[in-house]
Amino acid sequence: MLPVVSDGERETVRSTTVEGIDGPVAEAARAPTVRVRDALSTAREEGFDALADVPIAELLDRLATAGALFLGEGAPSAGADPLEPFETYRRRVTEATGLPAGWVRTSAHWLAVGLRHAAESLRAQSPTGELDVYDDPTYTRETTVGLAFTPRVRVLGASMPANDPTVYAWPALAIGMRIPIVLRPSDREPFTAIRLARALLAAGIPPSAVHVLPGDRAVGETICREADHALAFGGAEAVAPFRDDHAVETYGPGESVAVLGRDPTDRELDTLARGVRRAGGRACFNLTRIVATGDCDPDALAEGVADRLAGADAGPLHDERTDVPAFVDREAAVRIDDAIAAIDGSDVTAADRETRLVERDGAARLLPTVLRTDELVPEFPFPFVGVTERARSALPDCLEGAYLAVAIGDDDLERRLVRSPAFRKVYGGGYPASVDLRETHETYLASFLYETTTYDPA
Amino acid sequence: MMETTYTNPHAPTDATLDEWVETVVATHFDPDGGTPYWLEWQDDRGIDVRERVDSFADLRDVFDPFDQDVLRTLSAAEFAPQSLDGDRRVYETGGTTGAPKRVVMREYWREQARWTARLLAEWEFPTGNVLGLAPPGGANNAGTFVQHLAHEWDALPYHVTMDPRWAKRLSERPDDREFDEYVDHLLEQAERVLESQPIAVLFTTARLLERPRVRDLVADSSIEGIVHGGTALDRDTHRVFREEWYADVALAGEYGNTLMGVAPEAPPSLRSPSERAYHLDYVPCYPYFVPEIVDDDGEVVPYGERGTVRLTVLTEEFFLPLLPERDAAIRIEGAGDLPWDWVRTPGTSDRASEDAVEGVY
């Protein structure tokens, strides 16, 4: 059974089956609400103090070790149990989520990179640009202004998603900032959470600071409501209860967007297609909408992206070259296929195939799809994008809510995107090449885990 | 098929179930002192129920599933025998699944408290002053039950009363803060009682016991035993309660409601919590009420299987045959001197959960 990890590992009387492509993959514990409250209390008291006792350099070394352990590299500290082989973890994630092997490996790699390079992320979020402010919070500005960079919470909670293991880097970075974490993993993919917790503990992170509680959705809701601050990942329905809660950061849906003020170059088209296809099309950073404005021809733009997606590989899920994810629940794929068919527009990718919904390697797949449409399409968990046209005057207001925005060929629009508080990640000139954990995820952790206060020792 | 030949050594009657059915039917269908509703029901059908019913099994041949809406609209006196005199009271259900249902009772809750006290004695459960933390008073039965339970122990009842209908409305609001403030208001009152009064037993809901403030309140008090009821309790929470949060006090559950009565948790001497995988096993007050666990066709499920609860209440104060309840539960065999069917881990059934707000009381 995938256990509750909270001051040791515990199995529960009840469990739930994690279903996979070829049948059950694992049993996962059901943490009761009282265990959440114990975890929050332990994290808030002992966990916070235990992390405060570890020098920042030592803490970051342990995170780096955890990153290596997560990937199946390095050795755990004395007395710690080794983690299961990385390939076993990888296969279980693929089986349970339908995410192809290559994307699971890539995503796990970026999670490990986040842990190994936590120092860079922490420096980027430091008011002084240095790490020592996490050991000694006091610093001086304008020669004589005494300030302190102090924690404003003692525990971070999170209700985590199943779409992409990399997202676990963000709560893990909180550990580097000396804030304990209490997480509820998705029932569809609890493997990353358990493996991460084991890696962190094996690397020497205090057990009182790391809590993973597989359980019913109520567990996630309790964590988000009762932690000092929380992250709620998921679709619109999952995050809706927390939209107006100032102590909860809601991450999702992504509905990332690219806006083009002129026809793209081949290289720019390559980056846009990658933005649709990478991570199996399931991450918040995947492009959902590409908007043509000004001199950009939307039909040619759609054709250009479709041409580049035509070669996406829908082969065996455990083959590293496979691009296209599978659906564990075939009915979910049918519903998505029907929903896309109901959108007013034309499927530019349809010419290359008979149907969008196919059966490959024993599982339902939705082949990459580019829809030329006048609508701003919703997000779906496979490589899917809607190409639409909008008057320049309607931009960027009609796109609010996008996790990530790419601007190509319109400097003025690019600046307006940057100035708008509704867009928190803006990239000019093309879709970004990689995940950079020094950047924000919607916002910096430090913006809600820490605050600047006055400290004048004189 | 229900076994009907047992007798309950802790009940006020030593009749078997079949014998008790005859007694109760004779009372409610007595042309002179019977229950107006049932007499009219009988006349409408042109039958003599006393002729037709000799046993528990006969009830299904004569009665349809009881329409509980009757209890929402009928004048309460119409559902009580005319021969029932003395200090009667109208009791109302909490109203978590619609308008409240009403029944008239006189001695029933005192009898249920006596039955509960006798069963808890088999636990060697502590006795003494009882603090009811949030059992509703007024029209609801729970506060009355706490009072009678304390009296069974020759002790004093203390009450922190909750308004379940207001709590329900608060719990339905998207923002939890007002609900939490109301709970804090209740807990502050409980703390004041515990500061100066020698309380031995806390009577409260499982949902309140999930709050760390209640755990701390118990740990810092004179409380030696907790009786919890009113809300479902999952097995993992039960285990944490028993082995961690409330490990230093005796802990017993009770399952019941205004219409049914009280089914206390089975004594651990008959089946320990770990033997039953932390399921909560409840012992109905046979032959006063019989919660049958049935499938979709109304047939009693085999032992160990889950079904919905169909409740039959057989008292000389009121008669309620074949009431489909909102709860689902597992049917299990009884044990020791309590050999009739027990009810395991009841909870709101999937069918009812969309409409009900459980967890208030």
From TrEMBL, chain A:
One of its GO terms (molecular function) is oxidoreductase activity, acting on the aldehyde or oxo group of donors, NAD or NADP as acceptor. The keyword NAD applies. Coiled coil: none annotated. Keywords: NAD. Residues 161-345 form the Aldehyde dehydrogenase domain. Signal peptide: none annotated. InterPro entries: Ald_DH/histidinol_DH (IPR016161), Ald_DH_N (IPR016162), Aldehyde_DH_dom (IPR015590). Belongs to the aldehyde dehydrogenase family. This is NAD-dependent aldehyde dehydrogenase-like protein. The lineage of its organism: Archaea, Methanobacteriati, Methanobacteriota, Stenosarchaea group, Halobacteria.
